[in-house]
């Protein structure tokens, strides 16, 4: 599977709707245009109506008066974010997308106790990479939300990623909790947590996946490296999900794949009532399209 096939998979759900908070951004509109062209979803665009219509005329004039687009005027950025979140909460939309609004503002709306998207679970970032010369998609979590998760949080982050993996067709993903070494070292908390997660999986506390760690990055993704170290298990060399120990590791790995390896990526925030596309302004329209497809697949899986 690659990210193009992920887009094709997402189009199978014919009635998906995405609520976009503050859709006053050229890259966001371009991504929406690409999604509409592929028949990916319907879109509810919240924000300053005049600004959105101007950007559409300049960037994607084919979206003017398009049946898949509804523009809803909002008096402020804050209210646009709230309106988009409420649309998802009420079932009018199946997923939320961040537009030209700060992460803090949209997350405040998401976490509202009355009409937000809280579930009581940990929210985590799940990124799906298509790496050149790799024969499979690689999932990295968590590169953007949780700074230094402890064991129980890592278990929920892992479960969020497994849910996303299963939504794109990886029925029993192989999970590698990443550390600097592949042996348990009491002085290295990442190795202790990795060993505990492995045991939790074996005892049925974490399901629908195979977990084995700690594993260093090379031993998680390279069969040759794992064999050289004499590591033999069902995850070594063929991990689908890389569970990083902290945000610095995840963020560096995420950006290294994009800038050094020229990998393609789609990402969502998982753990809320619905998937959240929380891309940055630096992300391309193509990356936003892949993120939308990932959100639709994940939302469809939640519905089932």
Automatic annotation (TrEMBL):
Family assignment from sequence similarity: Belongs to the phosphate acetyltransferase and butyryltransferase family.
UniProt name for this protein: Phosphate butyryltransferase
SUPFAM superfamilies recorded: Isocitrate/Isopropylmalate dehydrogenase-like (SSF53659)
Pfam annotation, one family: PTA_PTB
Top-level lineage group: Bacteria
Naturally occurring in which organism (per UniProt): Bacillus seohaeanensis
Keywords annotated in UniProt: Acyltransferase, Transferase
Lineage of source species: Bacteria, Bacillati, Bacillota, Bacilli, Bacillales
UniProt-listed Enzyme Commission number(s): 2.3.1.19
């Amino acid at each position: 599977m690659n990210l193009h096939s992920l887009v094709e998979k997402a189009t199978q759900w014919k009635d998906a709707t995405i609520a976009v908070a503050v859709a006053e951004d050229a890259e966001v509109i371009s991504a929406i245009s690409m999604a509409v062209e592929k028949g990916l979803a319907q879109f509810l665009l919240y924000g300053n109506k005049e600004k959105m219509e101007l950007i559409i005329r300049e960037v994607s004039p084919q979206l003017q008066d398009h049946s898949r687009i509804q523009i809803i005027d909002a008096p402020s950025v804050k209210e646009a974010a709230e309106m988009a979140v409420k649309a998802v909460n009420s079932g009018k939309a199946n997923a939320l997308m961040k537009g030209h609004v700060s992460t803090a503002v949209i997350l405040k709306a998401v976490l509202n106790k009355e009409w937000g998207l809280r579930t009581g679970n940990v929210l985590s970032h799940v990124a799906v990479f298509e790496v050149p010369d790799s024969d499979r998609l690689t999932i990295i979590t968590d590169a953007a939300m949780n700074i230094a998760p402890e064991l129980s949080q890592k278990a929920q982050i892992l479960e969020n990623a497994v849910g996303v993996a299963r939504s794109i067709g990886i029925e029993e993903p192989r999970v590698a909790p990443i550390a600097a070494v592949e042996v348990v070292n009491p002085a290295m908390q990442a190795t202790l947590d990795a060993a505990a997660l492995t045991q939790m999986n074996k005892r049925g506390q974490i399901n629908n996946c195979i977990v084995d760690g700690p594993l260093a990055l090379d031993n998680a993704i390279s069969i040759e490296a794992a064999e050289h170290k004499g590591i033999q298990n069902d995850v070594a060399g063929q991990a689908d999900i890389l569970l990083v120990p902290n945000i610095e590791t995840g963020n560096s790995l995420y950006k290294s794949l994009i800038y050094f390896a020229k990998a393609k990526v789609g990402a969502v925030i998982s753990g809320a009532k619905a998937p959240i596309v929380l891309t940055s302004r630096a992300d391309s329209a193509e990356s936003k399209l892949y993120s939308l497809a990932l959100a639709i697949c994940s939302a469809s899986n939640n519905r089932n």
